[in-house]
Fold:
Amino acid sequence: MILLPCPWCGPRDASEFGHVGESSPRPDPAAASPAQWRSYLYLRANTCGWVAETWYHRLGCRRFIKVERHTETNETRQPRLQPAADAGSPAQQARAASG
Amino acid sequence: MRLAAQPGEVIDRTRPVQFSWNGRQVTGFAGDTIVSALAAAGERVFSRSMKYHRPRGVLTASYHDPGCMVQVGDEPNVRGAHRLVSGGIVVTSQNTWPSLRFDVKAVNQLAAPFLTAGFYYKTFMRPRFAWPAYEGVLRRFVNGGRVSPDTRPAHPAKRYVHPDVLVAGGGPAGMAAALAAARAGASVLLVEEEHQLGGHLRWGNEADLAVRTDLAGRVAAEPGIEVLTDAVVLGRYDGNWVAVLERRGELGGAEAERLVKARAKTLVVAPGLIERPYVFAGNDLPGVMLSTAVRRLINLYAVRPGERAVVLSANPEGDAAIADLKRAGVQVVRVEDARLGGDIVAATGRMGVRSVQVADGTQVSCDLLVIAAGWTAPTSLLNMSGDRPVYNPRAARFFPDVARLPGEVLVTGGLAGDGTLDELTGHATAVGAEAARRAAGIGRTWLRAMPGRQEGAAQIADPEHGDDPPAGLAHRDDQPAVLPALPVDAHPELFAGRTNGFVDFSEDVTAKDLRAAVAEGFDSAELAKRFTTATMGPLQGKLETVNAAAVVAAAIGTSVAETGTTTWRPPYVPISLGALAGPAFEPVRYSPMQPWHEAHGAVPLLAGAWIRPDHYGDPAAEARNVRERVGIIDVTPIGKLDLRGPDVARLLNLVYVNKWSKLEIGRVRYGVMCADDGVVLDDGVTGRLGEDHYLMSTTSSGAATVWEWLENWLQTEHPDWIVHVTPVTTAYASMNVAGPQARTLIERVTQGVELSNEAFGYMHVRTGRIAGVDDCVLWRIGFTGELSYELHVPASYGLHVWETLLERGADLGAAAFGVEAQRILRLEKGHFIVGQDTDGLTKGYSAGLDWAIKLDKGDFAGKPELAWQHDEESGPRLVALQTAEDSVVPDEASLITEGNHIAGRVTSSRMSPTLGRPVCLAQVEARLAAEGTEVTVRLPSGRLIKARVMPHLAHVDPDGGRMRV
Structure:
């Protein structure tokens, strides 16, 4: 099945992993409206093309890994999207900014 | 009738083989198929068709021959033109009664006007009460062999292989490609459907046989090639994950089929071409065969297929068949050359062809009609790789759209084009070398995908960066190879002739059926297929899909190219369920105390993968014993996580709804976890064993889930926190000692721990030595509502500690209790169970957790949703119910109703031995949750009973005094 490039174990069959899902940054819980929060919980962009997503190597190294997968062909590759698009949650960004 | 020895024959005349066919003894030779042996003995009819029960004989003489399915012993639906004979097998025809020759069910032919395709949508519908009778009749006429319920199922272990190059097809192109790939350093798996390599060369002329022998010999001598014959590539999945069916018939029975799972770096698709039937009246009569069938029979099995032949030829292979027929002593009385306007109008006969009407109207008497009408490209592996083959009207077949293929899939052989044998093997050689080159590139990519192994990746020379190539996979000139172009020969488009004939031989679907479907509005290939069932038989379209597309296209008024074919899906051929399943791996988990449970009559409960003692004979008595004396329960499956690091408290604050910053060393706290949608995820107790050391417990079914949950937070959201999580669920055997005598018993076996209530109070944790075992953890918690100590003992000492407790507590009345008794006890105390009293929608405030949820804390999982639930006061509420009738214990999930409105349900329900009446927990709408509210419970029988909402969730000891002594 789909080959996932686990950075710790090398390319492994997708059946070793749990699919966590499309990477979507966690909004600031103190500031988010119900609509924004529920969009984070339930809505996904589900684009046709390269998407960044998280997989959990449950039957291997047990690390959560980020890969990019092309949703039409199921090709996979190491993440390559622009850093700005994948800066993490507001909490992570705040931490990164404060150094 | 058997001929003299043929140069390419595969039979061994020194080894006769005797078997039975419909009760009579037949002798063939080793190497014969069932059908070739029978044909040599003069048989022409092997089966009756599915619907009309028309007699059927050889059509293709290959695995895919629709008229050659037979029963061999217990095994139904055996492909008689592929299965080799072996001594003593009992072969019978299928779907005939009383015999193949005289089949009463052929009366269906008279009913044919009523049995057109899709008849079951229209006939046998009314009157509805008669359906059981119709079903009985139809069942007698259903196709297929007999399955014996005594057949022992086989579950052969699967095989996993990782070839650099997998070549599907062992004809000249496949062999040449495999050789080229192996010479380039690739490891190759070559998969061939037939019993020998060679493809169409096997029934070719002397030159073809010489090439076959040379190629097959070189393949056998090449160490880098593994060959599987009588093996079929079933399907191609993402990343060249390829399923291969390996048949190992000589082992018979249990090991007859095996699933081989291959992860190939590159896949070379070289299946050749499948000859296609022509549609005309009588095209299914025994004696009507394709040119490859007569060439197989004559050249492989030395069987003369008939005496007087008419031939329709549209290509050089048809012409070669004419030469073979003459060489075999068959009288070729008429040749219709389709390239010059020849045609077959109709064939007639009863149990076999007797006469053929040709294009100019002449009736020719014959007993053999040979058809060479054209070729179908079996593109299924390409379709599965994402290709959409394109129809070429000049060549009258489909070709791959190479631009759409992923780089790791290549095509060669007849699928790619035509040409001389040299041109084809030349193309295949180039493809094989290219497949090896690309495989090497993929291998390098895989290695470079592991940043932790940079030094290894650096050693893999990368010519793209100017390195010298090492030995092994050659990539000297690492440019993509320019593959030679193959010519494409013109071929007349021969699909459906002038009269109505069979398009799908297995499903008995004629061209007229397809046209009728189109007329009814099923005007596409897919719709016409689904209505008529054309292409849905055992061949799955291999012989019928292009003719069906042509008939549908003509009926709609478009072309084959525009109509397209139906979808090619795996598996390419059938595989037994046993081979797909393989051996069953169903691990179970036992606690170390299992031998004691078994020896003492424990009734097992399957809880996830764990086998737990449900009870030991009388759960009510076990529960009473806990309330009155002391009981011990094995709770080893409880999830346990060892947490260490300076940031553990921050993690606990994040995942639990309550506060954890000020938990002192030696204290235990109960916590509930909610997910980010506010829904209750898990609960348990966590104790602080040291400055940076905690032990967390979870529900037993949540053990793995919570571990993943914690790791998710730590790895993805807070990688800067220092917390080490170690699952210790199975490192500890866990047991709960509960009851008024619990302290007395624990004191007898424990050293190093002060056990008075002042020194070791409720919700505290200590470590010490129990029954001589060091490093045990004891905490005082209260799931059952009695004074209790939960012990976590290093697992290998679990049984010892368990037995010691029971022995030392015998005079106190210590006895084991099981999961059922624990359920009763906790329900009496109103302690909810996640997943029992909560479901996938139950948010925190609906589980009676108002006291626990600390909205004034910083961020924690679920906080926003819980805050909104709190403000809106939304969602149901968990309440305790007391039923009006003491003798009726409502079933769990009984509804709480108001007329036709469902206002809630009973989530837990038991008869309480302590109180002598039922105790229940229920989810109800918030407006009904006030103490004293009367509700109606609807039992599954429909009976309604009254119940009252209690002031507390606990029915017994609501103040919790008994746990705190």
